[in-house]
Amino acid sequence: MSSQMAGVLQLLALIAALALAYRPLGDYMARVYSSEKHYAPEKWVYKAIGANPTAEMRWPAYLRGVLAFSAVSVLFLYGLQRLQGSLPGSLGFASIDPDQAFNTAASFVANTNWQSYYGEQAMGHVVQTGGLAVQNFVSAAVGMAVAVALVRGFARSRTGELGNFWADLVRGVVRILLPISVVGAVILVACGAIQNFAGIHEVGQFMGGTQQWNGGAVASQEVIKELGTNGGGYFNANSAHPFENPNPFSNLFEIFLILVIPFSLTRTFGKMVGSVKQGYAILATMAVIWVGFVALMMWTEFAGKGPAFEVAGGAMEGKETRFGIGASAIFSVSTTLTSTGAVNSFHSSYTGFGGGIQLLGMQLGEIAPGGVGSGLYGMLIMAIIAVFIAGLMVGRTPEYLGKKIGTREIKFAACYILITPALVLGFTAAAMALDTPANSMTNSGAHGFSEILYAYTSGANNNGSAFAGLNADTQWFNSTIGIAMLLGRFLPMVFVLALAGSLAEQKPVPETAGTLRTDKPLYTGLLVGTILIVTGLTYFPALALGPLAEGLAS
């Protein structure tokens, strides 16, 4: 079987698995977030933190809950890293330096999981399991909570109440993420991923000397790393490491974990707003972009010219022979079109156009299907922009799901889509203008520029993957990328929740003959075009200086 055919078959198998999980998981999540029942473990949590899960919140109170919880999480994780040298289970590793501890704390709380350190050489069992793994759960649940709040904004009327943040947070962890993670961890252990608390030990011979590895609760952290679209690896090689991702089946299973909740949330959205067709329209938009990007990535990586490409069957540099080009391309696109950031191949080694596809996937806002929660609310923002554009073309006030999109709503949506480009392009320009950041580039020219552009694109979009040719473990990059991650995560949430509150206060508008049908293929095409034009063209000049220039020169 050819490598191309193997890649296509894996893609078809993945689509089939996602289709089977779509309806039951989507319906289940809708029931979770609509339920009025509280389980005993959840009540214990509410009592411990002093929260009243039945109290409805308007958007300012909901936002305060998000920010307060996240701020405490940053401080806790920062302190845990700074105290590592004094903690049991540290494996002899020293405490983390202040700038790197800040960067890592901001990264994991912001669901970015950017790593400027070698996991197996820096973090002990307590930090990995009690700090990083815990944030993998709760940061994902925060994103899901904000998405559900926006959905309630569409579903409710004549009220500014969006639910209760603490109830949404706890339910997301206890009822959705934990159960799936337990089953997923067992599957990964069966595939060969490790799960222990072993210390550092020497294994075999490596280039004339011994090689050292440490154990860890890898399978349990790996599953929530993918399921929660987090991406931070227990080992520096991330999902290319055989302890994290042992074989082709585990690789396909991890891609499934990355995509299953973001895609299924469109079903949840449809059920909660009372129209599954609206969910299918959002799903179709996500699927068209994802499949299109996978096809483009496979084409550019298989179509390389030259003797090395012909012998290897494509651009195999930086890719695991266990997975090949097809599975690596699917993983790469899935991780950059979501906020996952996990890698099973070396992104810097992709062709020039392949690197451009990775960058563009993040720059679109990671909405196809996007991160857990963040993908859905990002896509709904673009849906509002699309109906606004359609309204301008026909000269009538735009409506979406029975809510008028007026001046206030479009301002919130516009601010949302402007924040991330401002962070990415501003920090990239500053880094290129200064001598110290530029000295961290391994490569010069277009590829060197792409390294820095990729770093800030990944940070501000809360992705976490890297070109890896950039030495990001400096005070400049640890500080600026940390700031970009926090602003890129929480500033958009301000406008999402403000928009949700504005929509919830409105009186529903009855559908008329002039109402744009947002559950039809025509609207799906309009939405795809809006995403590619409004967000894609924002970055075109930067992409032209980096991956496009590199691709045309090769």
TrEMBL record:
Q: Name one GO cellular component term.
A: plasma membrane
Positions of transmembrane segments: 61-80, 137-155, 176-198, 249-268, 280-299, 376-394, 415-434, 481-501, 522-544
Question: Molecular function (GO) terms listed?
Answer: P-type potassium transmembrane transporter activity; potassium ion binding
- Mind telling me which Pfam families this protein's record contains? KdpA
Q: Keyword rRNA processing on this protein?
A: no
Q: How does it sit in the membrane?
A: Multi-pass membrane protein
- Which UniProt keyword terms apply here? Cell membrane, Ion transport, Membrane, Potassium, Potassium transport, Transmembrane, Transmembrane helix, Transport
Q: Does the keyword Transport apply?
A: yes
Per UniProt, subcellular location reads as:
Cell membrane
What function does this protein fulfil?
Part of the high-affinity ATP-driven potassium transport (or Kdp) system, which catalyzes the hydrolysis of ATP coupled with the electrogenic transport of potassium into the cytoplasm. This subunit binds the extracellular potassium ions and delivers the ions to the membrane domain of KdpB through an intramembrane tunnel.
Complexes and interactors: The system is composed of three essential subunits: KdpA, KdpB and KdpC.
Q: Which family does it belong to?
A: Belongs to the KdpA family.
Q: What is this protein called?
A: Potassium-transporting ATPase potassium-binding subunit
- This protein's species is Streptomyces venezuelae
Gene name, per UniProt, is kdpA
